[in-house]
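Thanks for the sequence, V.! I ran GH92 family glycosyl hydrolase right away. Repeating your input here for the record:
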Amino acid sequence: MKYTFLATVLLSGCMLLGRAQTVGKVDKPIDMVSTLVGTQSTYSLSTGNTYPAIALPWGMNFWSPQTGKMGDGWMYMYTAEKLRGFKQTHQPSPWMNDYGQFSIMPLVGNKTFDQDKRASYFSHKAEIAKPHYYSVYLADYDVKTEITPTERAAYFRFTFPKTDEAFVLLDAFDKGSYVEVLPREQRIIGYSTKNSGGVPDNFKNYFVLEFDKPFANVATFADSVLTDGRYLVKADHVGAIVGFQMANAGDQLLVKVASSFISKEQAALNLKELDGSTFDQQVAKGENIWNTELKKVEVEGGSIDDMRIFYSCLYRSLLFPRMFYEIDANGQVVHYSPYNGQVLPGYMFTDTGFWDTFRSLFPFLNLMYPEVSEKMQAGLANAYRESGWLPEWASPGLRNVMVGNNSASVVADAWVKGIRSKDIETLYEALLHGANNAGPLTAVGRAGASYYTELGYVPYDVNINENAARTLEYAYDDFSIYQLAKGLNKPTDEQLLYKGRAYNYQKLFDPATGLMRGKNENGQFQAPFNPFKWGDAFTEGNSWHYTWSVFQDVEGLAKLMGGHQAMQIKLDSVFSQPPIFDDSYYGFPIHEIREMQIANMGQYAHGNQPIQHMIYLYNHVGAPWKAQYWVRETMKRMYSPYPDGYCGDEDNGQTSAWYVFSALGFYPVTPATDEYVLGAPLFKKATLHLANGKKVAIQAPNNSDQNKYVHALKWNSKQYTKNYIKHSELIKGATLNFDMRAEPNKNRGVNKSDLPFSLSTHDAN
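Predicted structure:
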């Protein structure tokens, strides 16, 4: 027993030493990325609700190993024991599910299309999961599967045992599919129409598979009937199984796969993305592409876990919104419109929900990848031309999910950050249209627009759910429109209209509770009122979460609460209260509720978006050291580099971008302004390689787990006391030197001139 105790002590010491050690700059940040982070999720509890996306940055097509059944949004669960295939996917989240999917599966001696019978045991010990390369051993078939992607194609390499019964299955899924086997060309072509909504009637995902060996035999299936020697099938659910003879153990089969939303001819054209490359060369290309993008943000001087979390989060920040455009035979950018079903010129992006991603994902792209953001703005203009509306949740077309009109923030933030879209007048028109009209879906335009325009809020008692959340977000969105109108020199009365609406948040503030509260059409607050009630007047949260959704005027909110000290106490209360909840609106604890309850951070629900900016609001009330403390606590406690690495849904880059920004030491509390609010950097050094060729060096040499507080900050060697930094100054290139200490400096960042932007104080000036 004493030897066991001694071994335990030694092991614990080694682990502590490992955590204390810091890692220098890495030459290949892709090596720090795990695509498995967040995959240990279930319907009732999310630790990310991610899947291991095998993809290039913003790629049109992703691939994923598939453990779930056909049509299951949880396509890959870390705790599963078997794989059913390898799926081309366009899924943004399990809640939105997928569209245009099909799957491939190697088999040996098991000529079946049944998804249960074909499944093979696998182990994570024999799995490599990277963005540009995935490999796994299928134990039941003694087959190694490898995948490497391009933007619209993928290369498969299957290593078989010696056998006369090697097969590759193509499953085009149900809801209407077509497959044709072309033995002379060693190809399979076809299409899948399976989707979860948001597509026109003529939607198809056309695919082509090209094999490097001739087919020994061919079979196709249609609606549960497998027929040998049949080459063409069209039915509800079809697929193909092609056979090969493997003369030696270790023989390999190469398969090139591509798809198109435009046509089978375009799918064949997209397959040319693999021309001239061997499998290994394509792996190297993918590695280089990812390293190029990831190295635009270099961090060093953190623990190995910190580095892994950071670069895994950065990877997730560069996946969505995905390309939904293709390059035609003339080299022109074209797209199939998910809004009207036509093939049209120009860019298109999709698979993002602005309710989540306006907060930090789009501001991050505007800072570090403005050339990509500019294309996304062009895609938004095309979405408006083709549908008459800007999407608020697109997958691939308009979807009726979430609240708000946050396309206003996405457009305005890009313009304020210097991204000069040639479509800005079209986009501005789209913002005004969306701000003043209810759309064809509740989540498009503004539900309750007429009430909001007349009363300044969406009433609680007019059968429009989540009305207080809508009001607060509309008010911020109006502020974003005001910012854009100002930047475009629009008429003064137009500017003042939206500026005035930006103060509508005041109409829902309840002085009796110091919180935001639903209000009836007659001007009376809703009653009874439970600030711990999720849903109802709010969206996936309660009043304690949504009260802080006054991004545009935190100073005004503080005045309503009784001043800076009173608001600071209110902020403290979020963490000090027990995680009690009222789930009666839903009838059960939705996963977001459970994730807050188990996090041991009181009412702070980092696993969902409405409150993610709240920590930084301490800067607005002259207590920046409290922001520094809680940001560090959240990074350390709510994130890890393991399969349970998130504390709720990752949500298309938003929760990841929060970490990336926070680890760098600043955060965009108010998108559509020129400011970032300071926290405290996590690493000893970070270097931002900006698109304009400038560099931002963030240095904190004495940073550590203990030294989490900013004692002093120098900007280009000059003392800097403000609690914010300006984007327009940052992109000129800068060196920020943080003096980090174990004790907070309660004299820094406390003066009125040090506080970040608020609309009401900006007006006063």
